[in-house]
Amino acid sequence: MEQTYVEVGVGPVSFAEVVAVSRDDAGVRLGVDALTAIDRARKVVDELAASPTPVYGVSTGFGALATRHIALEQRTQLQRSLVRSHAAGSGPEVEREVVRALMLLRLSTLATGHTGVRRQTAELLAALLTHGITPVVREHGSLGCSGDLAPLAHCALALMGEGEVRDRADNLVPAADALAAAGLEPVELAEKEGLALINGTDGMLGMLVLAITDLRRLLRTADIAAAMSVEAQLGTDRVFAAELQALRPHPGQAAAAANLVALLAESGVVASHRGTPESGTQCNRVQDAYSLRCSPQVHGAARDTVEHAATVADRELASAVDNPVVLPEEGRLESNGNFHGAPVGYVLDFLAIAAADVASISERRTDRFLDKARNHGLPPFLADDPGVDSGHMIAQYTQAAIVSELKRLAVPASVDSIPSSAMQEDHVSMGWSAARKLRRAVDGLTRVVAIEVLTAARALDLRSPLEPAPATGAVVRRLRDAGIAGPGPDRHLSPEIETAVSLVQSGAVLAAAESVIGELR
């Protein structure tokens, strides 16, 4: 298959471009405008490097060592030492998609023409992405201030032909060997380049963009799960009416409620217990439990949180994060604090709270299926022969364990700060840590929603001969087509849960519903 490319210019990359490079292995090219901007900024750095006046980042040490003026003959060593010493990560390898995202976002900042790197350095970073060479980045090491220093330093190390990388086939090889195999030459970093390569919020921002992408899909899938639960628990769809939602005009709530209405349209199960004035009958249940009735309010609040986070991410994508920054029009470098990760760290933490709460209400809806006192005529635990069979009893345990962990992950990282660099960096964001725990939270939410879909599908089958709505029925069929059998005696449940997780994660559950009613909001 021919490789697709993302062109990086002086403007921001989009969410779709981040996903294309990080997850779909798109190659990367620098636009003509970016190369022009890079050359212009480099000219400023070269002029300042030749000046006898010390300039931070060009002819001085770094951080608390910035008071030392570095002689011309030592500046190449200064850049090498900076990268080598800052590549101090520890722990498990960071996921390939995260590393590719942070590399792309660092390249995007380089392309703005405010960092002062040479074009060959930026082009080598683009080439690594194109050739599928992924530096090994360790999980621990970033405080989210002065950027994601350690993770980015591991990437800069690979540009120098040092350290370890994963090649396109995921083999662990020395960086020098991977570069040679791709026909690439390592770069000898010049003044300012080492600092420009490591001083950004790119790791936490990359994880934020990927999390928002996943959560937008997951929240629509959570609406599907909620609709299936409302339907199979003989709940009412009247509470989701647009005129009721308009009384509290949060956009996310309106979208979630509209999705539930569309998903439950033409449901034979809902129609079976809906009283009407014309028939002279009345449903004997006055109100559904909160976990059913308030699904749009909770899912909607999460949606609005995601969109707030997306606004922050868009602003960050449009930023040139480095210190010092080159101001080419004025021919100077200026120190600044734009590398501080607080804006990104806050929303990463906020999203972890939203993920935990959506998972919590999903687990509560699932639990109602299993209690014969609350499931309106279904067998205990949806078991085939209760007592002999346990049905989905322990699937709910799995949900509960994950939800409990999600609550712990919702504790914010960004409220913490440990001073570093001899008190020069005395307040840090911990944004990288917030991003790492959000990735775990998104995975946990995926699993909780998948178990609700799995359980609700079983319950809908048990409502037969009543027919589910066309949209929810399509989801049930998608599970069955994937090898998840309908109700029956107990069987090994873990593989079915993992299949359901895969269907939720891939978007297959969402696609099944949307194939019937069109795109959900």
Automatic annotation (TrEMBL):
Catalytic reaction list: L-histidine = trans-urocanate + NH4(+)
EC number, UniProt record: 4.3.1.3
Lyase recorded as keyword: yes
Keyword terms of this UniProt record: Histidine metabolism, Lyase
GO cellular component, one term: cytoplasm
Domain of life, source organism: Bacteria
Enzymatic class: lyase
Pathway linked to the protein: Amino-acid degradation; L-histidine degradation into L-glutamate; N-formimidoyl-L-glutamate from L-histidine: step 1/3
Subcellular location: Cytoplasm
Molecular functions (GO terms): histidine ammonia-lyase activity
Gene Ontology process terms (BP): L-histidine catabolic process to glutamate and formamide; L-histidine catabolic process to glutamate and formate
Record CDD domains: PAL-HAL
Listed Gene3D superfamilies: Fumarase/aspartase (Central domain), Fumarase/aspartase (N-terminal domain)
Main location, first listed in the record: cytoplasm
Signal peptide: none
Stated family: Belongs to the PAL/histidase family.
Name assigned to this protein: Histidine ammonia-lyase
UniProt organism field: Nocardioides silvaticus
